[in-house]
Amino acid sequence: MMEFYIYRDGVGRASGFDTGDMRFVFGGEEVSSQKEPRFRMMIYLSIVSLIDGLLALPERKRFDFVAADSSFSMKFILKKDVCAICSEGKSLGVFDYDSIIISISNGICDFLRKGNSLPLEDSVYTDFNGTVEDLKAHVRFRKG
């Protein structure tokens, strides 16, 4: 099972260009952008990129995620409904595609519940919220 966590730097009103971190937990393994300052990322733009890439994975079969304005990266390789995940040249395991999507969705919902929603007038609002809605629709469709 995979868990996904998102952290935004600072407090107060969110901005689409805020920086932050992502943390992926795979049983005993963990990959986190918190390890090094060069991995810090523009969190909202990185979430959009992650969702877009993962939703396109069934067609493309491979997604090389590179966080916005960061050196943080991960590889996702899909074969049938099973996805291999790698980071920094290390295999993190093989996971069911649907469980990855659900974990990402749960992590984003938790992040937003903690007061990290973008204001309507933010320049990233439309892209971010549209992509999050695409993810939610995909999860609903896959759950049947």
Characterise this structure.
The chain is built from three helices and eight strands, in the order ββββαββββαα. By secondary structure, the chain is α+β, with helices and mostly antiparallel strands. The strands form two sheets. Strands 1, 2, 3 and 4 form a four-stranded antiparallel beta sheet that branches. A four-stranded antiparallel beta sheet has the order 5-6-7-8. α1 packs across α3 and α2 crosses α3. The longest helix is centred in the C-terminal third of the chain and has 20 residues. The chain is globular. The model has no long low-confidence stretch (mean pLDDT 94).
Structural descriptors:
single chain; 144 residues; alpha+beta; 4-stranded antiparallel β-sheet; 40% helix; 32% strand
